[in-house]
Amino acid sequence: MREQDPQVRARNFEEVPYGYTPEEAVEEAKRCLKCKKPSCVQGCPVNIDIPGFVGQIALGNFWEAMKVMKTTNTLPAICGRVCPQESQCEGSCVLAKKMEPVAIGNLERYIADWEAQQNECVMCEMKPRTGKKVAVVGAGPAGLTVASDCAKMGHSVAMFEALHKPGGVLVYGIPEFRLPKAIVEREVNFVRSMGVDLQLNYVVGKLKTLDDLLQEFDAVFVGTGAGKPSFMGIPGENCLGVYSANEYLTRSNLMKAYLFPRYDTPIVRGKRVATIGGGNVAMDSARTALRLGAEKSILIYRRSREEMPARTAEVHHAEQEGIEFNLLTNPVRYIADEKGWVKAVECLRMELGEPDASGRRRPVPVKGSEFQIPVDTVVVAIGNSPNPLIAQTTPGLETAKHGNVVADPKTGRTSKQGVFAGGDIVTGAATVILAMGAGRLAANSIDEYVRTGQW
Ligand SMILES: Cc1cc2nc3c(=O)[nH]c(=O)nc-3n(C[C@H](O)[C@H](O)[C@H](O)COP(=O)(O)OP(=O)(O)OC[C@H]3O[C@@H](n4cnc5c(N)ncnc54)[C@H](O)[C@@H]3O)c2cc1C
Ligand code: SF4
């Protein structure tokens, strides 16, 4: 897919890939073999009918393709952009064994963007009203999937979102150059058009508890994500200029600091910015720093490139844009100047030892290898855990070690009758499509519960 030139895009927030032309989409779709037992569908956590929608694109029937898509996925423009297709549908495509797999993600994105350019929109089939009421807490990918699936099943759905914009990480975390916010808004509006009532600025656990919601609703789904940042606990983390990735990205994306002076949100535009971590959040932070004006954006990651959890395409994009990778390097302390502002990060060189519980080779410090990197801003992107508010205000809701809500992976049922949960709040920080997959399972199980009343 054609993309913006790396030198140019490294200084703007516009989307990196341009998307297919209609001809390119049809040509790519024609490569699909329409396998009888499509392994790509098995590889997709929400089991999109991939040969179905790709086959319609190959025929040039874009409306039909969108109809097929919307039976199983109401967020295709989002999934087409951010899903890790390489390890899911495309990784399972039979063509991947001998050549390039069908570019399923690009086609998904194409068909959703094509629909956005039309004056009409494909609507989903809605079942008759059941009179049952479902509350959804959190308007991220998990909550949006539960809301749209339950609405399709005929239930009345109310969503409660703490922030002033719906979308979860899609609006506050993932930057504009990877996922334009107008696209998220459009797909969220589609979910609303199915009759879902969305209440913004509504913090459940403060305005109402889950028990309050259970008085009003037949079932409650908790999809509150994992938005609490983790720190390493090393000296100097409280220095001025050291951000969590959550704060840095939220200021830039949701609070629109990148659109200064149109939006007057303060953010530090460092000249030498170090980002700590090797996942998608770290790539997004390092690339954002560059776009906010950094002369040098430096990534510091304790393992090697092979163990990086970020998507290959994002690592590649970051490298093209000139992010400096310091691999096998671990920060041990931050050093401040006389005003308390971070001026350097002290690091240790690492080498790889035996595999650990994650299956990746464990980074082991090289003794006496301390060295310093001069910086004026640091972004810590080493992981997130659930916000404890819901657990703290809900007696009887079982949680695990890091505060994750315990839920049955097949049904989303929690320890509390009528309460279901899914997405990052259950699994810890994962992916959009896994959150959507959990939402789909929970919606089916909510449907069964509200109809039968059996727990
Ligand atoms: C910077 C970044 C980049 C990422 N990149 C990718 C990527 O490229 N591909 C990918 O697949 N995944 C990516 N992820 C991970 C992915 O975004 C998450 O796994 C996914 O968003 C989880 O969905 P969710 O619905 O469980 O939670 P969230 O998206 O976190 O949504 C939870 C929502 O609940 C709301 N909420 C929280 N508490 C309350 C409360 N008490 N009351 C009401 N509302 C509440 C929050 O405000 C939020 O809107 C990325 C994550 C980050 C942070
Ligand atoms: S596995 Fe690949 S070739 Fe087969 S149906 Fe799926 S996308 Fe098409």
UniProtKB/TrEMBL annotation:
One Gene Ontology term of the molecular function aspect: glutamate synthase (NADPH) activity
Domain FAD/NAD(P)-binding: 132-439
Top-level enzyme category: oxidoreductase
Annotated Gene3D superfamilies: Alpha-helical ferredoxin, FAD/NAD(P)-binding domain, NAD(P)-binding Rossmann-like Domain
InterPro entries, sorted: DPD_II, FAD/NAD-bd_sf, FAD/NAD-binding_dom, Helical_ferredxn, SudA-like
Its EC number(s): 1.4.1.13
TM annotation in the entry: none
Pfam family, one: Fer4_20
Occurrences of domain Dihydroprymidine dehydrogenase (ranges): 9-119
Keywords associated with the record: Oxidoreductase
Name assigned to this protein: NADPH-dependent glutamate synthase
